[in-house]
Amino acid sequence: MKTSTRLYACLKLLTMLHIVEQLIFGMQDLHELQHLMAVYENHFGDTNGSLAVLLAIAAGLAALVIRCILKGGGARFAAMFILGLPTIGELHHLFETVQTSHYSPGAVTALPSVICGVLFLRALVKEYRPSKTVRVNPARGSLVREIMALRITAG
User: Fold this and answer.
1) Number of independent structural domains in the chain
2) Could you tell me where the DSSP H helices lie in the chain?
3) Domain membership of residue 118 as a residue range
4) Residue 58 pLDDT grade (very low, low, confident, very high; cuts 50, 70, 90)
């Protein structure tokens, strides 16, 4: 198993723990998300229609990401890199804790999440960095084959 795959699994576990921590101790992000959803729904005027469009967009993006991961190569790299970026954004919990001088919900799991996210992105870039290839001169290869053939016939 690749290092990036193991780290991605660790990130998903930390994400679940992060959500549980916020559910237990208070979720400031939920209030901000509810405000954004209210603005989004007011833009459409119809709650059901706006949710249907949002669901269609989310399902389409999820299908695209899964296809990119299964395709492999550069598409997998791009999809996994985009999925790993939000973990760095969890630094805002640490900034809030320092700014208010007291615990901010999500701060405990934010630090390991950010560290794991950085390690994940680093491993991903390392895996997809072009490796140096050694080229064999075709003329030299045929010369080696001829020498080996001479040894076999002579011996």
Assistant:
1) 1
2) 3-25, 28-44, 47-71, 73-84, 91-100, 107-128, 138-154
3) 3-154
4) very high
